[in-house]
């Protein structure tokens, strides 16, 4: 049984009114896929392809027009936001706009605990300190105002906020791809380490195919709201079946990859296991 099962998920938006009625368009059109435990699914596509709308429905931020989302074989209802928040959390793209600038880190991390648990203040503080440690921040960070942190530190706080309720799935909406290379590598390694330690499944939305090649088990390619390809990074990046996927790969890597592009990754991985 998959951890997450998405069936024919559709989101229809109404456009401007005209003489012939109100136009409608499907931002997401009958998308289906599964996500297993401890796996990473990446969603790629051009801007406006429906990627962010899809994950916002999965996270419960917006309701689907039709289709089903099942978590552990139980259908998730849009109205049951509190229950969903314990299992599926989201890290947003822009860390600067993701937080109330008047709050300190302790207050930011306490908010989901106060809403979703009946823990005492002492229990919540212990969980906050533990979670900050998981993302490489010291407990005394709780008293710092979020606006005084670097972008890298803010992303670590965003990850801590996602982790604090011990979810099984974390959605990362391009939160790594826009950072500079050294910071991106640090956060990438952190997310992979947390996946191994905690058994988290990730849904990663982004344009950085280099990151996706490294972290993803499977990839969905979206175009105009539809899922047009689905497969492993190796299959999609060496043998794309659609023009959209081909252009995405060539635009990022400069060419369609061949099998040798995975040899170095494999040798590095084996070296770490010794």
Automatic annotation (TrEMBL):
The keyword Cytoplasm does not apply. The keyword Membrane applies. GO terms for cellular component: plasma membrane. GO terms for molecular function: ATP binding; ATP hydrolysis activity. Keywords: ATP-binding, Cell inner membrane, Cell membrane, Hydrolase, Membrane, Nucleotide-binding, Transport. It is a peripheral membrane protein. SMART domains: AAA (SM00382). It is an enzyme of class 3 (hydrolase). Residues 4-249 form the ABC transporter domain. GO terms for biological process: transmembrane transport. It is found in: Cell inner membrane. It comes from the Bacteria. Coiled coil: none annotated. CDD domains: ABC_NikE_OppD_transporters (cd03257). Its EC number is 3.6.3.-. Belongs to the ABC transporter superfamily. This is Antimicrobial peptide transporter subunit. It comes from Haemophilus influenzae.
